[in-house]
Amino acid sequence: MAKNLWGDLSSLNVDRRTPKMVLQEQAQVLAEATKGLLVGFVSESAVGPLFGYDLKVVVPALNNYTLTILRMVHPLEFYPVHVTASRTPVDQTCQNEAELEAVIGSVLSSDQVRVDLSRLMSQVA
Fold it and tell me: Is pLDDT of 2 > 80?
């Protein structure tokens, strides 16, 4: 066995709520709120030195039709997070979790996103 030059890693703090977790929670909320008619999905990508995530709405009953709601990118340090949305005019940088939740909330509860969700649900009702 190789000698451990890393030291004791068991005390590393991995309990912090990440921006990705915020999106994943909202993806789950969508599926629960629509009884599975619409399912939230978070896709991941690397954007150079940044972590990138897209929050998408998937409609299983429509051959997994997918609509991207928002995109965010952040450095290894989590913040700042840059959030953009294609369906609503959002292009904002968040310095902390509270700001991130506020921006995500404004996108998800926007009139345009609500209309989009309504139209998707009408297709499978």
Answer: yes
